[in-house]
Amino acid sequence: MLSLSRFAARGLALRSSRALHAASQPLNSVTEQDLAHFAKILPPSSILSTLPPSSVASEELHLYNSDWMGKYRGTSTTVLKPKTTEQVSEIVKWCNERRIGIVPQGGNTGLVGGSVPVGDEVILSLANMSKVRSFDSVSGILVADAGCILQSLTDYIAPHNHIMPIDLGAKGSCQIGGNVATNAGGLRLLRYGSLHGTVLGLEVVLPDGTILDQLTTLRKDNTGYDLKQLFIGAEGTLGIITGVSILTPPAPQASNNVILALPSFKNVLPLYEIVKRQLSEILSAFEYIDRTSYDLAVKHGQGRALSEEDVEGAECFVLVETSGGKREHDEEKLNNLLEFLLEADEPLINTGVLSQNPAQFSSLWALREGVTEAVSKEGKPYKYDISVPLSSFQDVVDGTREHLKSKGLYGDHAVKYVVGYGHVGDGNLHLNVVANSYTPEIQAALEPYVYEVVASHRGSISAEHGVGAMKTHALKYSKSDVSIAWMKKIKQIFDPRGIMNPGKVLPE
Ligand code: FAD
Ligand code: MLT
Ligand code: ZN
Fold this sequence. Notes:
By secondary structure, the chain is α+β, with helices and mostly antiparallel strands. It is 35% helix and 20% strand. It contains 19 helices and 17 strands. Strand 8 (199-205) and strand 9 form a beta hairpin. Flavin-adenine dinucleotide binds at residues 68, 103-111, 114-115, 126, 146, 168-170, 174-175, 177-179, 181-182, 184-186, 235-236, 240-241, 372-373, 464-465, 468, 501, 504.
């Protein structure tokens, strides 16, 4: 490496009050009779249940009942793994009639407890729905089953010189359906925008089992309400996504990255302005990690450490990526930028480390992408993914640390680290509080504290991970009563019996 989201009026009212009544009743548990019905829809290998006749040991369901962080745990007895949209529809129809809750589960990499049951709902895993349906290498439009793993889609389209418009650290496990259901952001949002723009169509099984086929491959379609948008970011509360049509961009001809070591967080914003101006159309990522995040990434073997000289005096780091059409042109721009930054009278950076080959390119990215895994290896992370003004990122991190100190909760006995990293280019800070264990005291100190801080900045309590089970009670910090009331009406229309991912997104 080189250093440098017309009935008669009376009839409707009656129907909805009955439905409201239904939704407030407890959901039913799966019984042996239900299992016998599921066995008419699915082969035995696609049913995992602790109930007879499947009778698997409850440990076999552990992975499905627990989230990635080990913070949320359900008590589901039954995991169903359909292969086709019709099978999904049959299962959902039955669960709706019987009022059995369903949790759609993709790669189970979600970070807000949305993908695991709050009780004993059925887990409907999309893992067996993993076929690419079509790819048009001229338009770049990919149509795939929702259970396709993001990395496998990347690999599928690579020979056609296309890339997925979304990339994230969990790409080896997360599924495209899960990405859409969470409206995941990730590392390429700055360049390619959000899934609300790149998803062209969806196939969705609605909570009554109806198949809503909106799997269009049209770039332009202004025929009425754009229903698919409702399912993007709905976290499985409005239906089960079974197919996705998505626009994939052409692969850049040249990609470069450089990690910049900064003496102070104060330099990040002026640096961002300069980088945007100088790199303009080739800038594809501007990612931030504070010093502690960097140290934890290195400690836990994520990427290759920079030299001691390069990290000396660095309070934080910024990873800049360029993606363009011509290597020489991009390299020249990047070198000019580095020269400009280093030769300034009052340099904003201490050093810049430029990758020289694909291995170094990946290694620099691993330092940033690996922070998530590093904080999980270090302890139990309380994860807040918030949108606040860029100028407040560091104040939020420092303020949270001070707040925990004032409560006597900072130190080896409780919270070990408060770190900040994230997508500066998207105004999205990941505030992680790394504790020895999840405790009610730390929880009470952090919430509503963090949400109040976010609200004071008119920010968002979820920039990209969603609401899940974690933030239902906190939705009010980012959404008005009117917005929440309309979200509840929408939920009521789609899912009057309240079976679809209960306990997620909307407050009781
Ligand atoms: P799951 O975790 O299985 O489910 C997530 C939610 O979507 C749940 O509510 C679930 O019920 C619902 N769901 C899943 N599949 C469907 C479906 N087919 N139909 C309807 N609902 C469904 N997130 C980001 O936004 N940006 C990042 O950069 C990022 N980086 C990450 C890095 C790591 C290491 C990890 C562990 C997670 C990261 N995440 C990130 C969070 C997570 O990976 C994303 O939210 C991802 O999109 C979830 O996909 P999944 O298939 O694992 O979904
Ligand atoms: C990231 O940007 O790394 C992801 O959103 C995951 C995380 O917040 O740790
Ligand atoms: Zn993120």
